[in-house]
């Protein structure tokens, strides 16, 4: 049985500024970025902060006109997928804050505060998109999906169990489990939803919404990188949990999540032109392998080291500092209104 962690005091001058452990250690609460237990966390901080954006910067005027002209299947999938995304970003705002309450490293608290803020903007962006394209009744229905849709409830079952167990019983083991699910969430659970919007965009539909989705996607990839590092460092500090039993648990969660994500993608994308469900399943497996490697584990899907969904690479795989992604190229023309006054050039 893993010991339950105490909520950390806010300021304790008797403790050192450099924390003695990520969880269950000692720290004064004073944060000096130049004297960290894990100096590379500063790079995560800078990369995550650099992504700042607000939903209201994205121009929805073309999407408002296009939404009524989507097929019934596309509109239904659109509303269901926004419903799904809201079930991820709402709780994610909270879990980021809660993990930080139990961390004894002030750099982790600070990075988690930025992540929580970004999750809160993601969640807000769904309300912003829906209020642009549809009436209040449909907006509310979309947000009910996570409470009422059987397939989505089943799909979210384990994440709910693991997050709620951490909230009730915040031990080191449950922190590790919550970070595994955060990594699944950031690196896998969003991606059939993202694929739906990128598929619309490549058919010149709902490009405003897809631009926003691409900003969310970019954030989630950075969050996933930090969470994986946090997981590895926490496990290294607590080697008694680095057991075959725990590693098997992680692999089992990944296998289960891939199954659930595949069932969901068939359910929600089955009627959508342009999305090949076999390719989608391969893409989900590819994402699982990628996140497992970030966690310091091995691939579980042998033939999925490369992304089998070729067309999506133009949208997702180019998010880094050196390349310009698809929407950034387009955004100067018609997406981010702040670009119109040259704000981004400053
Ligand atoms: Zn998010
Ligand atoms: Zn995130």
UniProtKB/TrEMBL annotation:
Residues that coordinate or bind Fe cation 1: 89, 119, 122
InterPro entries membership: Ferritin-like_SF, RNR-like, RNR_small, RNR_small_fam
Domain of life from the UniProt record: Bacteria
Keyword annotations of the record: Deoxyribonucleotide synthesis, Iron, Metal-binding, Oxidoreductase
UniProt-listed GO biological process terms: deoxyribonucleotide biosynthetic process
Enzyme Commission code: 1.17.4.1
Gene3D superfamilies noted in UniProt: Ribonucleotide Reductase, subunit A
Binding sites annotated in the UniProt record for Fe cation 2: 119, 186, 220, 223
Cofactor note: Binds 2 iron ions per subunit.
Residues at the active site: 126
Top EC class for this record: oxidoreductase
Keyword Oxidoreductase on entry: yes
Cofactor: Fe cation
Stated role: Provides the precursors necessary for DNA synthesis. Catalyzes the biosynthesis of deoxyribonucleotides from the corresponding ribonucleotides.
Subunit details: Tetramer of two alpha and two beta subunits.
Family listed: Belongs to the ribonucleoside diphosphate reductase small chain family.
Record protein name field: Ribonucleoside-diphosphate reductase subunit beta
Native organism taxonomy: Bacteria, Bacillati, Bacillota, Bacilli, Bacillales
